[in-house]
Design a protein that fits this description.
elongated; 7-stranded mixed β-sheet; alpha/beta; Rossmann fold; 36% helix; Helicase, Ruva Protein, domain 3; 11 helices; single chain; two-stranded antiparallel sheet
């Protein structure tokens, strides 16, 4: 229960105590209180003994209530950090996960001297595209997504991070016939975090994912592999002759996805990169001769 002279520290503890279904209640509470009070993390700590005013308390309580119902923190605060970049977030667009940073790290390890062109298929918030353009400062990039809200958000995040001169986002459906012919290929680096959850998992995911996030960015057929099958059809016409392809995969999909993409690129055997939890996370097709 909130007291009349509740401090910011006490408010954070109260909010955390109310997030019964969160696996990270204290972190969520800090992010919510910080966003509601317009404070950076360091400022929040320094102001811990201060008593917020009634308007600030009301904002915190409204945001905490949304989180208690399972809404992702990034939708509530309107922000998400990815690869050290601050990104805008809006409901209806997939929240970027830390695991996806594996694709950025793998790209930098495989192409440390840079690339000229980048394609992000299913760009979502623009997290991957923004991170790669921030690292490859001479590259230009294109993000494509079926979701109009995702395209708009990617454009905002490119502008927020000063990357709009080298990056752009367009609406497109990679399942449409001839989609690849309109991309202006080939690209030196192609990345994608496609939908890869099997339809059989519907009803089994955490509410913050299944209730709030775009199902088009989550589910991909009975076995979760439909997106990889379509990508295998179109990518040979999109990837440059010495290009690098990085696809996020589910932790148990390395063999199946590798077989699908390996058949599309028989000249290059698939590799797998693991995430920080030591789980299979990225499928790699590297067309450079020395990498085969």
């Amino acid at each position: 229960m909130r007291g009349r002279n509740e401090t910011i520290d006490a408010m954070i503890r109260r909010v955390a105590a109310g997030l019964k279904n969160s696996t990270t209640p204290l972190l969520d509470a800090r992010l919510i209180v910080g966003a509601a009070l317009h404070m950076e993390p360091a400022d929040l700590i320094a102001a811990g003994a201060k008593v917020p005013d009634a308007e600030q308390v009301s904002r915190v309580d409204v945001m905490a209530s949304r989180r208690a119902r399972g809404e992702p923190v990034a939708y509530i605060t309107g922000e998400k950090e990815f690869w050290g970049l601050s990104l805008d977030m809006t409901p209806g667009v997939l929240v970027p996960r830390p695991d996806t940073e594996t694709l950025v790290a793998t790209a930098l390890a495989r192409r440390p001297h840079g690339v000229a062109s980048i394609l992000d298929l299913g760009c979502g918030s623009g997290a991957l595209l923004c991170a790669l353009l921030a690292e490859y400062r001479r590259a230009c990039g294109l993000g494509v997504d079926l979701n109009h809200a995702a395209v708009a958000l990617t454009r905002r995040n490119l502008a927020r991070n000063g990357l709009q001169a080298r990056g752009r986002a367009e609406q497109g459906d990679w399942n449409a016939p001839g989609f690849e012919s309109g991309l202006g290929a080939p690209f030196d680096l192609v990345v994608s975090n496609p939908p890869y959850i099997p339809e059989t998992e519907r009803g089994k995911l955490p509410p913050e994912v299944e209730v709030f996030e775009d199902h088009r960015a989550l589910f991909s057929g009975a076995d979760g592999l439909n997106a990889y099958r379509r990508l295998a059809d179109l990518l040979p016409a999109v990837l440059a002759p010495d290009g690098l392809l990085l696809l996020e995969i589910g932790f148990d999909q390395a063999t199946a996805a590798g077989s699908i993409l390996g058949a599309a690129f028989p000249e290059s055997r698939p590799f797998i990169a693991r995430d920080l939890a030591d789980r299979d996370r990225a499928l790699i097709i590297d067309l450079r001769k020395e990498a085969r």
